[in-house]
Give the backbone structure.
Amino acid sequence: MNNDTQQVMQRIKELRRLVEYHNYRYYILDDPEITDPEYDMLFNELVSLEKKHPQFDHPASPTKKVGGDPAPAFSPRTHSIPMYGLDNCFSTDEVGLFIERIRKQNPENNLSFWVEPKLDGLAVEVIYESGTFAAASTRGDGMTGEEVSSNIKTIKNLPLSLINLQKAPEYLEVRGEVVIPKKEFDKLNAIKAEKGEKIFANPRNAAAGSVRQLDPKITASRPLYFFAYGAGLIRFRDNTRWTSQSEISSGLREIGIAPVPNGKICRDLIEIQQYFHEQEKSRLESPFDIDGLVIKVNDILLQERLGFTARTPRWAISWKFAAAQAKTRLEQIRIQVGRTGVLTPVACLASVNVGGVMVSRATLHNENEIQAKDLKIGDMVLVQRAGDVIPEVVRSFKEERTGQEMNFVFPETCPSCQSPVTKIKNEVAWRCVNLSCPARLEQGLIHFASRHALNIEGLGKKWIKILVKQGLITKLTDIFLLKKDDLLRLDRMGEKSAGNLLDSIERARTDITLSRLIFGLGIRHVGQQTAKSLAERFGDLEELAGADEEYLQTIEDIGPEVASSIVRFFSNPDNRKLLDEFGLLGLWPVSRPESAKKNPLSNKKFVFTGILDGLSREKAKEMVESRGGGVAGAVSKNVDYVVAGEKPGSKLAKAKDMGLRIIGQKEFLELIHVEDR
Ligand code: IVH
């Protein structure tokens, strides 16, 4: 090997290590050291080097996560230790009995339990040999599963090479659950519905279906996560052992494998019970489906003493949450018109208790969904409260139909203004495009006046409905033209409340900030955060209206979909007219792009190496950040300055190699100082 190729090989190794390390910071520690674009640069450099030098190809390179060639079929693989199931229980009493049984058998033991959420996904075993991913298989019947290595390899939070190798077992069978976040599941189904494909019934099916894909590239495109809950065979090089479940959890985390989140040690039933209620309460906020807790004897020796029944361990049990699903009758389907004109079908249900909350309405999302779920009016349906607060209909019980059920026919005209509805290309939703549709206007006004937009006190849903109905408001800007006499003619509007309302409208007009106004416009996909970013970049609405998609996408958080929605909004002549009216009304906030002055180091990236004289790293970081710059932990091509102090580390050599700009402490302080003036 000549010198150059030697160097290439070194760089490839280095990049693999860096990418795995930053995956670990991102996925396991949830504390990335570098930005996404910086990560992409490292990753892309690795991809291109590997492509140019295929002789250094390696199956455990992090680039292999994109998915290899399709497998003709999955071959069976027998687990070295069977993968047992768990006994379920549904009450405190049952858990109490479980604990008592173990206590009786082991009175001398100072008992403790490892308790963690039970994730609802697909059980998988992953094998690492000498720190490198070797194989993965599904649980199957517990004895023998299917080998799904090429698919499992694509899971983003699962490393192909472990980190902190000195702490890793030489041979490791790690077991865990493959899951898909609820949000991503919804997105996946929306795409499937749009394509007219069959949708997944729940996130577990989506995860299982994704793992059992014959084409790993499809698996790679699915947002799968692996969370470890235990181990099969483990062999360390020395005589290290993991002696408890809690140690397994922290040990795995240390070597780069994500354990099931939120596990904790409980000493008795009371503690377990308390934890159960906490988790049950917050389960809807969890990004993943959780269907209960798993309670395990923490001590591994004791686990071994307790052993297994034919099917399940005697040292573990699962305690299931009460279902957040319930069965009820779908009495009617109504159409709601939103401010963007989207017609949303809403299920009117016979009231039912779902996980402790009475539910009588559920969203049906769109027409396709009604078809995909095959819903008829009069059907018995399964309703669930999922991640969001809004309940949804999961499916119908077709087998219970009586023949009296009726098909729902989606209306061809807007139920509010009767104008014909249309569909935008590539979208599933029907829309009313009549800008003066009363239903749209109402929703638009409610949003416009709401707390995070213009925040017009006293102008809530109720009054908006009345004002629209009475014809006092026919477009957004009419709010500012309301006269006291008009208001006084309304029922239950007295002198005082009319005066208060006009005052708060006037206050909103003069106090409004650009970001609130942008948010208030109700542009699709533009939430509060995006509105803020836009207001930081543009001086006023006119500037924003003039921006093209390409430019908009240079703003953080703004992708093609959002950019195109913004451009579409401002290319609508009625919306342009609205801007003119805002101007005439003096509703024209300007942002103070003082930011340019305040942030002289804006977008400049620094890396520090070595010791700075009389200046701590924290202080230096603060100096940079308060001037709009950023500090990275590692050198990469988009670092602008490498500040080298006394006894600089390896970063300096690397920076030199990469031809980065290297400065000393004096120059650094000058830079800060000069830029300040
Ligand atoms: S421990 C010896 N912990 O539930 C059995 N299982 O019903 C050890 N599961 O097959 C299982 N989350 O797929 C355990 N935190 C967790 C779990 C969990 C989900 C699944 C697992 C298992 C099934 C048993």
Observations:
- The pocket of 2-(butylsulfanyl)adenosine is lined by residues 84-86, 116, 118-119, 123, 139, 177, 229-230, 260, 294, 313, 316, 318 (CB under 6 Å).
- The longest strand covers residues 325-337.
- The first helix runs from residue 3 to 28.
- The chain has a mean pLDDT of 90.
